[in-house]
């Protein structure tokens, strides 16, 4: 049984999405245990509450977003916040079905996006690198979950989802960012983390030069 938390915030002043259609189709799949958290009162606290109540394999977030922010009624989830919550609850896959959720902010040179942070915390990620139509997002998500329920790997399920999205006209939008389970992402002191990485590379280069000269 695959546990799926479906988060579908309704944001005042923004177009309603096809969350209900998506919810019904995925919930009807054999082997899928779907928990919905949808509507105008979806807050960060309520997302944490659902994660605390039971174990989930997949977070499916269907809503509005932007680079480095998934919108909720109380603001929104940043990459660091979402990565921390999903890693703490051992969620294996996050699907952010929102336009531009797979892009980095253009205004801050050192800002990291969901595609940087979640895989670094061991969470596989599907995010959108361009605007995506509701229908294409729904078809991708349904096909993805059908394939996972049938025993496909995340990569295979992603390919199946892309085929479904292509038929709906948005094959290029969903991108898969595979989890890196060999490193831990630091949610604070980004500059220091980058400097340490550069320092480690320089140290390794120095060791290689010494071996060549010896």
Give the overall pLDDT as a whole number.
80
Number of helices: 7
Measured as a percent range, the helix fraction is 40-55%
Q: Termini, distance in Å?
A: 58 Å
Main beta-sheet strand count, sense and barrel state: 6 strands, mixed
Compute the number of strand runs: 9
* SSE run: EHEHEEEEHEHEHHEH
**What topology, given as strand order, has the largest sheet?**
2-1-3-7-8-9
What would you call the shape? globular
Measured by DSSP, the beta-strand proportion falls in 15-25%
What does it look like?
The chain is α/β, with parallel strands linked by helices and 214 residues long. It has 7 helices and 9 strands, in the order E-H-E-H-E-E-E-E-H-E-H-E-H-H-E-H. Strand 4 (65-66) and strand 5 (69-72) form a beta hairpin. Helix 1 (19-27) packs parallel to helix 5 (134-149), helix 3 runs parallel beside helix 4 and helix 5 packs antiparallel against helix 6. The longest helix is centred in the C-terminal third of the chain and has 24 residues, at 190-213.
């Amino acid at each position: 049984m695959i546990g799926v938390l479906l988060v579908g915030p309704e944001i005042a002043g923004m177009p309603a999405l096809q969350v209900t259609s998506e919810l019904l189709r995925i919930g009807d799949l054999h082997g899928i245990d779907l928990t919905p958290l949808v509507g105008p009162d979806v807050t960060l606290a309520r997302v944490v509450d659902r994660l605390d109540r039971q174990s989930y394999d997949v977070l499916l977030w269907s809503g509005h977003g932007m680079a480095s922010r998934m919108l909720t009624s109380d603001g929104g989830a940043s990459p660091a916040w979402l990565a921390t919550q999903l890693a703490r609850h051992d969620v294996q896959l996050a699907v952010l079905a929102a336009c531009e959720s797979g892009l980095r902010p253009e205004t801050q040179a050192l800002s990291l996006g969901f595609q940087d942070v979640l895989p670094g915390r061991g969470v596989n990620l599907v995010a959108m690198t361009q605007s995506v139509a509701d229908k294409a997002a729904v078809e991708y998500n349904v096909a993805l979950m059908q394939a996972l329920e049938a025993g496909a790997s995340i990569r295979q399920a992603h390919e199946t989802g892309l085929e479904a999205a292509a038929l709906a006209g948005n094959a290029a939008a969903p991108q898969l960012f595979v989890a890196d389970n060999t490193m831990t992402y630091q949610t604070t002191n980004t500059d220091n983390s980058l400097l340490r990485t550069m320092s480690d590379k320089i140290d390794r280069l120095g060791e290689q030069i010494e071996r060549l000269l010896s």
